[in-house]
Amino acid sequence: MKTSERMEEIRLQLDEINLEILGLLSRRAELVQEIGELKKQKGTERFDPIREKEMLDNLVEANPGPFDDNTVRHLFKQIFQASLGLMEEEKKALLV
Amino acid sequence: MKTSERMEEIRLQLDEINLEILGLLSRRAELVQEIGELKKQKGTERFDPIREKEMLDNLVEANPGPFDDNTVRHLFKQIFQASLGLMEEEKKALLV
């Protein structure tokens, strides 16, 4: 296979993977919203640093590479923060 | 179902989704490494801002929510940057 053909093939695969990641991120965000709603009903704090640490530790343990562990932690912290951001927005909307 | 049972169920689902996202991010990173290798052989620049913009536009177009478009852009820019970071590391390793 020519280099340019292989590059095109990889690009198509990347496009597919991007959409799969987006789908999982969106599904994840919905679940976090639901858990936020349940926590609100129970009156418990939404941000749970122990649970976040547990999730990060699990991810680092399962990290197959090539990203190093710090990069995995960084990327998932961004994902967690964005999810908390969603709950904050909802809070703001309720205050308006 | 009790609230606490549903919360536990969601947590298990989040753990699964985290691992699925990690798997896709890792597969994605491998493909980016391969494309970087092919570009090196061809002598072309590895960072392609037009391709990056195209990928972000595709993702925003496909965004089902609940994340807003800016959050989707932000999260994927972090993913793209981490992948470029991998190529930079490899470059540094070659220079040593």
Automatic annotation (TrEMBL), chains A, B:
It comes from the Bacteria. Residues 1-91 form the Chorismate mutase domain. This is Bifunctional 3-deoxy-7-phosphoheptulonate synthase/chorismate mutase. The lineage of its organism: Bacteria, Bacillati, Bacillota, Bacilli, Bacillales.
